[in-house]
């Protein structure tokens, strides 16, 4: 069964709490203010903006992560990628000593109430067009119209060079898909991410944005039901990708922000093979749950798919009359 009210309750259950959202806001606004006002880093600071699932509203419980892009005046053609990372790290260590961990393209700050991935960025386009002043003059980077069409360059620690990225275009891609599907895409991504978390832990990938990108590629935008949409998503993934897994090959999937980039490039053939095997098993369960005509059985099957956060069917309670039942009257002469 489709169980729309159950799915609405399920989506509420996997939404980050209001407390988590408040913690995220406290964390990122404090960090952004520190970078802007720092005596040393402030000299190259242009502005900051948010990216990732927090900004695209595709995060799931517990929702402690925030991705922050720090735009600077650094010239990616003259400043080494390693030097840019080192400069940001030095500043962050000043405010978060012992809490900063280098990652491939970001610096992770792990606090008790929030985790922040901070990326330092440069912009050849803003530099060439002389737009730094305009971007600096607005109260938030999102308001600078000249900014939105421009890609950025960020340092890659493994490659030891600057690489292109376009998080603004990624945000627009998600927004457009959600609008085109009647606002069903974002909830679908949340369900897909939750299914992945509940289904298996190893190997780690694909997760996060990779799942969102796969969901966007294989979305049936005509579905206006959470249950049917999820089943169709798994079907489409299996139809398109099972042959790749059998052949021990990882397909290529372009980045909406930078189409020449393959977002699945870090995925191994083994990772992908395990992922598709779980997709196949999950589809079998989800199809049974959708086909069941019994509400209790359907809810139980959907809980097998999504875990205990999916609502269970209410247990039927035996009803008893308010007054004691008296034996039937018998005609005279009968014992």
Shape verdict: globular
Return residue spans where pLDDT drops below 50 for at least 5 consecutive residues.
317-335
Going by CATH, what is the homologous superfamily of the largest domain? Beta Polymerase, domain 2
CA-CA gap between termini: 53 Å
CATH architecture of the largest domain: 2-Layer Sandwich
Average the pLDDT over all residues and give the rounded result: 90
| Helix-residue proportion | 40-55%
Task: Specify the CATH class of the largest domain.
Answer: Alpha Beta
Number of helices: 13
SSE class: alpha+beta
In total, the number of strands is: 7
CATH level 3 topology of the largest domain: Beta Polymerase, domain 2
* Helix and strand run: HHEHEHEEEHHHEEHHHHHH
Which strands sit side by side, in order, in the main sheet?
Answer: 1-2-5-4-3
Taking the sheet with the most strands, its summary is: 5 strands, mixed
**Integer-rounded radius of gyration:** 26 Å
Total count of domains: 2
Strand content: 5-15%
List descriptors.
single chain; 335 residues; alpha+beta; Beta Polymerase, domain 2; 2 domains; 13 helices
Write a brief caption for the model.
With 335 residues, this protein is α+β, with helices and mostly antiparallel strands.
Descriptive report:
- There is one protein chain.
- By secondary structure, the chain is of the alpha+beta class.
- The protein folds into 2 domains: 150 residues, Beta Polymerase, domain 2; 135 residues.
- It has 13 helices and 7 strands.
- Strands 1-2-5-4-3 form a 5-stranded mixed β-sheet. Strands 6-7 form a two-stranded antiparallel sheet.
- Helix 12 runs antiparallel to helix 13.
- It is globular, with a radius of gyration of 26 Å.
- The protein starts with a helix and ends in a 29-residue tail after the last helix.
- The relative contact order is 0.11.
């Amino acid at each position: 069964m489709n169980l729309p009210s159950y799915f609405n309750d399920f989506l509420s259950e996997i939404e980050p709490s209001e407390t988590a959202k408040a913690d995220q806001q406290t964390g990122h606004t404090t960090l952004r203010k520190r970078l802007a006002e720092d005596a040393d880093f402030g000299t190259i600071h242009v502005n900051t903006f948010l990216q990732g699932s927090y900004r695209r509203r595709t995060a799931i419980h517990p929702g402690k992560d925030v991705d922050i892009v720090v735009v600077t005046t650094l010239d990616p053609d003259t400043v080494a990628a390693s030097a840019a990372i080192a400069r940001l790290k030095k500043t962050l260590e000043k405010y978060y000593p012992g809490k900063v961990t280098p990652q491939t393209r970001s610096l992770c700050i792990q606090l008790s109430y929030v985790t922040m991935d901070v990326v330092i960025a440069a912009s050849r386009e803003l530099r060439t067009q002389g737009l730094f002043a305009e971007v600096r003059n607005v109260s938030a980077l999102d308001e600078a119209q000249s900014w939105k069409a421009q890609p950025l360059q960020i340092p890659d620690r493994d490659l030891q060079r600057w690489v292109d990225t376009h998080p603004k275009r990624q945000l627009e891609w998600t927004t457009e898909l959600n609008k085109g599907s009647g606002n069903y895409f974002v909830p679908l991504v949340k369900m897909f991410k939750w299914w992945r978390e509940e289904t298996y832990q190893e190997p780690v990938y694909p997760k996060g944005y990779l799942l969102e990108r796969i969901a966007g590629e294989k979305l049936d935008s005509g579905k206006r039901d959470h249950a049917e949409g999820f089943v169709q998503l798994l079907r489409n993934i299996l139809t398109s990708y099972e042959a790749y897994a059998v052949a021990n090959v990882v397909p290529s999937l372009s980045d909406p922000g930078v189409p020449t980039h393959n977002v699945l490039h870090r995925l191994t053939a083994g990772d992908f093979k395990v992922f598709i095997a779980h997709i196949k098993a999950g589809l079998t369960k989800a199809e049974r749950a959708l086909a069941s005509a019994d509400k209790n059985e359907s809810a139980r099957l959907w809980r097998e798919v999504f875990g205990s956060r999916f609502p269970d069917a209410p247990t039927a309670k035996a009803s008893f009359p308010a007054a004691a039942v008296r034996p039937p009257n018998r005609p005279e002469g009968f014992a």
